[in-house]
């Protein structure tokens, strides 16, 4: 199981990444061994089932490592996962063979993985502002980071009806293998800046946010 070593982000916050190779049945067994009787939804696509199972196995693994109280994950009306015990936060992501989880007992969290390819640069005019498009014009990997960052901010906000161009804004930055840049969520009733942390890996980019509860 190519599970990368969990990355501590605070005394009670852990980030985990997993390149999933296990078959569905093995993932199902791992989930039920950690949370007997856990509800498992039925998906039409086997790949979706494996992603769903793996993300939750990873999240529960991280929560157990942090010594979190016994809790379960349920799905909110927005589609995002939530912990059944107040004060614990979780965010999940998947792209290609990779799944990621960020759990915390001290922060609101968001995480996103995007496999490197041609999709983000091709679709950039749909989700980036004119200024952001200019910033990524000569840097396809930054286009992936911007897409990932907006997905992460969307998860942090946890409300629907955000327009990726109008309500999610990103500061330009000099891309490095890892670092931080500023993301902003702005609506008629909400305006907040966030530190977006990022990592560029050979096959994918990763972004995540730790925000105040």
From TrEMBL:
Chemical reaction(s) catalysed: apo-[aryl-carrier protein] + CoA = holo-[aryl-carrier protein] + adenosine 3',5'-bisphosphate + H(+); apo-[peptidyl-carrier protein] + CoA = holo-[peptidyl-carrier protein] + adenosine 3',5'-bisphosphate + H(+)
Positions contributing to Mg(2+) binding: 112-114
Cofactor(s) in the UniProt record: Mg(2+)
Keyword entries, A-Z: Enterobactin biosynthesis, Magnesium, Metal-binding, Transferase
Keyword presence, rRNA-binding: no
CC terms in the record's Gene Ontology section: enterobactin synthetase complex; plasma membrane
InterPro entries with a match to the protein in the record: 4-PPantetheinyl_Trfase_dom, 4-PPantetheinyl_Trfase_dom_sf, 4PPT_N, Enbac_synth_compD-like
Residues binding CoA: 48, 56, 93-94, 112, 151, 155, 162
GO MF terms held by the record: holo-[acyl-carrier-protein] synthase activity; magnesium ion binding
Domain 4'-phosphopantetheinyl transferase: 108-198
Pathway assignment: Siderophore biosynthesis; enterobactin biosynthesis
Taxonomy, superkingdom: Bacteria
Coiled coil, from the record: none
4'-phosphopantetheinyl transferase N-terminal domain boundaries: 47-104
Gene Ontology BP annotations: enterobactin biosynthetic process
UniProt similarity note: Belongs to the P-Pant transferase superfamily. EntD family.
Record function comment: Involved in the biosynthesis of the siderophore enterobactin (enterochelin), which is a macrocyclic trimeric lactone of N-(2,3-dihydroxybenzoyl)-serine. The serine trilactone serves as a scaffolding for the three catechol functionalities that provide hexadentate coordination for the tightly ligated iron(2+) atoms.
PANTHER family assigned: ENTEROBACTIN SYNTHASE COMPONENT D
Subunit field text: EntB, EntD, EntE, and EntF form a multienzyme complex called enterobactin synthase.
Stated name of the protein: Enterobactin synthase component D
Organism field: Rufibacter glacialis
């Amino acid at each position: 199981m190519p599970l990368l070593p969990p990355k501590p982000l605070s005394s009670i916050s852990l980030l985990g990444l997993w390149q999933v190779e296990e078959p569905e049945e093995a993932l199902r067994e791992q989930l039920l061994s950690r949370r007997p009787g856990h509800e498992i939804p039925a998906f039409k696509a086997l790949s979706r089932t494996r992603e769903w199972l793996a993300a939750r196995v990873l999240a529960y693994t991280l929560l157990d490592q942090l010594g979190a109280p016994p809790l379960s994950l349920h799905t909110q009306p927005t589609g995002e996962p939530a912990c059944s015990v107040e004060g614990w936060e979780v965010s999940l992501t998947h792209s290609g063979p990779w799944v990621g989880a960020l759990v915390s007992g001290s922060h609101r969290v968001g995480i996103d993985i995007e496999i490197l390819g041609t999709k983000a640069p091709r679709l950039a005019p749909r989700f980036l502002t004119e200024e952001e498009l200019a910033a990524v014009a000569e840097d396809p990997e930054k286009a992936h980071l911007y897409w990932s960052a907006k997905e992460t901010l969307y998860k942090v906000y946890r409300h629907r009806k955000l327009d990726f161009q109008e309500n999610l804004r990103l500061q330009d930055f000099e891309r490095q293998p890892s670092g931080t840049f500023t993301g902003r969520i702005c609506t008629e009733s909400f305006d907040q800046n966030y530190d977006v942390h990022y990592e560029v890996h050979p096959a994918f980019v990763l972004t995540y946010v730790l925000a105040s509860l």
